[in-house]
């Protein structure tokens, strides 16, 4: 994948929406708005609806930091990721936290579980504590989150993605290009009937981008895309097994399968071996993530390794630069677009 330099950018909101602004917009007193957040049971349903509408329309974030504690803002950086327990984000979190801590900052973390609504709730809660900066994962957000980050008067960074036309600083890579790279690799190895298995976790829109890159590349090669979606909510290993069993039961079977992540790929690989398949002779298996277990499988898993650690370190560096804790590079062009790597092992 190509490397591109883009200028770093700083942004500040035009002014914070206050509790009094919400009260005026909703036609209630400021005390009633305060009760809405602190003692909602004491506010009538009709007024709660009016206040909720005003909060969403204005992108209001309640300031939970008391005046005497406002200095706390300078030491906390908030971050929302899709899955705290997911191994794919572990290096990003470690690199981000380690880099921040060198300069006296601490990480405040939440998981969205691929839910735009849960991400919005986390962002609203975090901004209420007035963090020094906010870091999100990908460019997919609810309208409410978009409103809040547009109004935020702190640095906002989006990671694990690269959409340079957006206002927040982007640090990551193109998921679409990951799909392109996977197909080109397998096609170059002689595979032609290449299937793609979606994530069983509902809301993983970045995996859909990888699927889009996969499909477009196959069509350009005059080959038919073949996408399988496991049952929603299935555990990854079980979803991978379901996909492998279903695809290999077809009269004309795929000769290679790209899985949306290594967890799914491991489930598929193990199911294939249990069914007596020779991998990769009968069917190649290819993943995404380069999880720690990938090289320990038998056969070891071929995959694409994202720059997880680099994303964390660079995101923290950009935050610290924006806060004046690190000098800004003389060259305003920044290497915020990072490269993924194909890890060639035994399964493909």
List keywords for this structure.
single chain; 348 residues; alpha/beta; Rossmann fold; 2 domains; five-stranded parallel beta sheet; four-stranded parallel beta sheet; transcription regulation; DNA-binding; transcription cis-regulatory region binding
Protein model, in words:
It contains 11 helices and 13 strands. The chain has 348 residues and is an alpha/beta fold. It folds into 2 domains: 6-16 and 61-173 and 309-340, Rossmann fold (3-Layer(aba) Sandwich), CATH 3.40.50; 175-305, Rossmann fold, CATH 3.40.50.2300. A 5-stranded parallel beta sheet has the order 3-2-4-5-6, sandwiched between helices. The protein has a 4-stranded parallel beta sheet with strand order 8-7-9-10, with helices on both faces. The radius of gyration is 23 Å and the shape is elongated. The two termini are 20 Å apart. InterPro entries: HTH_LacI, LacI/GalR-like_sensor, Lambda_DNA-bd_dom_sf, Peripla_BP_I.
